[in-house]
Design goal:
With about 140 residues, this protein is an alpha/beta fold. It has helices spanning about 10, 30-35, 60-65, 80-90, 90-95, 125-135; strands at about 45, 50-55, 75, 100. The protein has a four-stranded parallel β-sheet with strand order 2-4-1-3. The chain is globular, with a radius of gyration of 15 Å.
């Protein structure tokens, strides 16, 4: 059985919008369009070769520039397989967002009997969001 942490996010975040689906175009994501129209590239928390590692000492200047202003942070929720599928079916997200990631070996607070993750360091969406916000 799946345990989604996304329903908890609006309870702890002042501004939180949840979009449901597997593929997203820019037109479907009004907040992305608004951010781009305002001249700001949204942040997409998803690992990749062009992602800024928020906890990498080599990226201090890039992270500092992200910290200097309010950001639109986009999270992908689902199993790792579903998340990869959503990214592959939503190329506009990659094109219009700056990918960010963290590399620290943080462990989930959830016991393995409650949440099954592919690796010990994998986190729930809620935990990943909290970690990214702490680094931003």
């Amino acid at each position: 059985k799946s345990l989604s942490t996304v329903p908890l996010m609006p309870l702890v975040l002042e501004k939180c919008t949840v979009k449901v689906g597997y593929n997203f175009t820019r037109e479907q994501l009004d907040l992305v369009a608004e951010s781009l129209d305002a001249g700001q590239k949204p942040l997409l928390l998803f690992p990749g070769p062009d992602a800024i590692s928020l906890d990498d000492d080599n990226n201090v200047d890039a992270v500092k520039s992200l910290q200097d202003r309010e950001q639109l942070l986009i999270l992908i929720d689902g199993t790792w397989g579903e998340a990869k599928r959503m990214i592959m079916q939503s190329p506009e997200l990659i094109k219009n967002c700056q990918q960010i990631q963290f590399q620290s070996e943080t462990e989930s607070i959830y016991p393995s009997s409650l949440r099954k993750e592919p690796e010990k360091h994998c986190l729930s969406t809620l935990e990943s969001c909290a970690h990214a916000l702490m680094l931003l």
